[in-house]
Amino acid sequence: MSKTRRTIRIIDRSIDRALTVLFLILLMIGVYFMADSYWVYSSSGLASMPGYTPQTVEEMLEIAPDAIAWITIDDTEVSYPVMQGIDNTEYLNKNANGEYSLSGAIFLDSLNNRYFTDYYNVLYGHHMSGGYMFGAIDYYVKPEYFDKHRKGTLLVIDGKKYSMDIFAYVQTDASVGVVFDVTSGGDIMGFVAANASIYRNPSEGRVVALTTCKSPLTTERTCLFATIKERADSFTDEELQEEMKKNQPQGEVNINPNYEEAMDRLEKRSPGLIERLINWFKEHFN
Question: Which of 1, 28, 202, 274 sits between 20 and 30 A of 229, alpha carbons compared?
């Protein structure tokens, strides 16, 4: 009998030791992942990313000279420059300043028009913890969060500003062509309506998808879909004409210095409009 009790005590002690070792291993793993997440965040360039939205293209280019847009979702961590590479791998591990970065950058599909003039546009971003990059998409699985964070702004390199209206949250797979092949011509709105976990009636406008990995080792993707509509404070043709009329050349004399200043301001604010400006000037003042 005493031998049986000794055996039981030995087994109990062994189990206790095994559980203690298991607890320490799990604790070390947790500490490692916390430290790893902090290191990724610190070394990725996210820690130095400004926490505000540039109001002009000039301000945007001072922060990210190669950016084609800036995306902001109100009251979230999403406020980043948007890049576009020669393919969809260039900015996976390169940040908006062209440096190596584990978090990469937010980027537009390489086959989309850089001015967001396509009907359907796809943005990609890494799934970062803490709601950084497109990790914030995770929060949209809750309807109450979704409904409180549907508005945003897209500032594009041509000077135009678009209001964003998020209307759907979708979980899908990277192999779904209608979502990730912008040349497919598929019925993206029909797909979203049929597959969305959360869906609100969309407003009119072109469509932008914000996509990210659900986890690193799968092809599962989580997506937000938004419509974009040009805002009233965009840099319009009418504003361009008014600026030109106020500073047009007088007769055959040398060009008014104020005209050159106006041209400089317009070029800095909206480099994408310079060709349009020249064509408009030729049409109206030749």
Answer: 274
Q: What is the pLDDT of residues 52-102, one digit of tens each?
A: 678 899 999 999 999 999 999 999 989 999 999 999 999 999 998 888 888
Q: What pTM, to 2 d.p., does this model score?
A: 0.68
Distance CA(200)–CA(166), nearest Å, equals 8
Q: How far apart are CA 284 and CA 261, in angstroms?
A: 20
Greater pLDDT, 109 or 10:
109
CA atoms of 114 and 157, how far apart (whole Å): 8
Using CA of residue 26, residue 31, residue 37, residue 43, what is the dihedral sign?
negative
Six-digit token pair at 70? 């800036």
Hey, where are the domains in the chain? Answer: 1-43, 52-230, 237-285
DSSP state of 215: S
Q: Report the CATH fold assignment for 52-230.
A: Sortase; Chain: A; (2.40.260)
CA dist., res. 184 & res. 100, Å (int): 32
Q: Per-residue confidence at 276, pLDDT binned at 50, 70, 90?
A: low
3-state secondary structure 21-78: HHHHHHHHHHHHHHHHHHHHHHHCCHHHCCCCCCCCHHHHHHHCCCCCEEEEECCCCC
Phi, psi of 150 (to 5 degrees): -100, -10
